[in-house]
Write a sequence for this structure.
């Protein structure tokens, strides 16, 4: 396995944020403002965290 770049990590973050926001929307029925803030947080945290953890695991092998 080779390290993951920012582009692939951001695609994974985008998918994660979309799925989580859809789930929250159907579960709680939040408005657009709350969902947009959640989307931004989910996207940034998952993208950065996923890339760092994935590359850390790849380098350890």
């Amino acid at each position: 396995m080779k390290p993951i770049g920012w582009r692939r990590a951001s695609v994974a973050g985008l998918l994660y944020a979309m799925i989580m926001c859809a789930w929250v929307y159907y579960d709680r029925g939040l408005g657009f403002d709350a969902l947009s803030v959640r989307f931004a947080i989910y996207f940034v945290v998952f993208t950065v965290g996923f890339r760092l953890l994935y590359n850390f695991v790849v380098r350890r092998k």
In short: DSSP finds two helices and no strands in the chain.
